[in-house]
Design a protein that fits this description.
Layout (H helix, E strand, L loop, with lengths): L4 E4 L3 H10 L13 E4 L5 H7 L6 E4 L5 H4 L2 E4 L2 E5 L4 H5 L2 H6 L1 H8 L4 H6 L2 H5 L6 H4 L42 H7 L3 E6 L2 E6 L22 E8 L7 E6 L10 E10 L2 E10 L6 E2 L1 H7 L6 H11 L11 H18 L4
Parallel strand pairs: 1-3, 2-3
Antiparallel strand pairs: 4-5, 5-8, 6-7, 6-8, 9-10, 10-11, 11-12
The chain binds flavin-adenine dinucleotide and iron/sulfur cluster.
Amino acid sequence: MRPFQFIRADSPQAAIVGFSNAGESDGSDERSRGSQYLAGGTTLLDLMKLGVMQPSAVVDINGLPTDSLAQIDLGPRGLRLGAMARMSDAAEHPDVIEHYPVIAQSLSLAASTQIRNMASLGGNVLQRTRCTYFRDTSYPNCNKRTPGSGCAAMDGINRQHAVLGVSGDCIASYPGDFAQALIALDAQVEINGPGGGRVIPFATLHRTPGDTPHLEHTLAPGDLIIAFDIPELPFARRSLFLKIRDRESYEFALASAAVALDLDGETVKDVRIALGGVATAPWRAEEAEARLKGQSLGDDTLAAAAEAAFAQASPREHNAFKIDLGKRTLVRALQQAATLEI
Ligand SMILES: Cc1cc2nc3c(=O)[nH]c(=O)nc-3n(C[C@H](O)[C@H](O)[C@H](O)COP(=O)(O)OP(=O)(O)OC[C@H]3O[C@@H](n4cnc5c(N)ncnc54)[C@H](O)[C@@H]3O)c2cc1C
Ligand code: SF4
């Protein structure tokens, strides 16, 4: 049994102060020190039980006011999703389903009903990788868990691992689904923290591993995600999330595509694409978008876009299949989006 401090917060400010007073991680070892916010607990508590994360303090944010932290509001400037809204509340909200289908689908295809009822949107975007070597502490070599220790996946069983955004230090894939929808729709994140409040593009929240795979996001210690703002986009309604997984029951993506299309007749006026399951972070496929703009969605154009999306892919022994799977997933998502009645 490893003791840790447990703090219940009733306001964002109390949560931030509680987090900071309880001590920060020194960044040298994820497990050693520092505080963690507790939302639904569906990632954090799992990893604490496994001994992968060993925070010295846990700040429970479930008592924060729901009117600001768990709201789901559609207004003239777009959709606002509070960070403490549960995945199922957002997935089943009629305004989200009608105006931002890619958001609703990414959430409803994620995890199981029980997990979606508990898990929060803020926790979802900050979930950790499912890399087996990261989650099993009997493997000593994991640069993400213990910086500088090596990477057991590099020459191990790497079927689930990433082909895009990889480095010589880590090839773990980003596991979530909701983040791809946020990237495709140019969402912003509102953050409050010890350094004050700010708003950043969601696309800048996650980091690729480089030589610091233990640093997964750009939040400072104590930063609390307050809400996600998704702008009013002309083509958000023609959007969808396609997820390919080993089984149709709850399972993480092998490959996924979040796409939003603005069509002028058969010509692509504008398009947004984010890929999941294949990359170390939620992955905006800008090269593919560039190939599609101004074109009609014929087979050759779609194939060229898919090629462009995976041109920089770097597979290992067991995951090369993800390149072909990722291309097919993207092509099929675009074809399906083009036929949507809006
Ligand atoms: C069996 C299983 C299957 C799953 N399948 C999928 C899937 O297919 N797709 C998918 O997307 N997910 C999947 N998940 C992951 C699940 O969606 C996440 O565990 C969940 O969304 C995390 O949310 P939470 O509120 O429980 O986060 P927590 O576990 O409470 O927190 C996770 C992390 O986020 C931090 N955090 C939480 N809220 C905030 C905030 N507001 N500000 C700053 N930091 C915060 C915490 O400190 C912690 O580090 C699965 C999980 C399980 C167990
Ligand atoms: S892929 Fe990343 S998370 Fe997995 S063992 Fe290697 S360093 Fe650790």
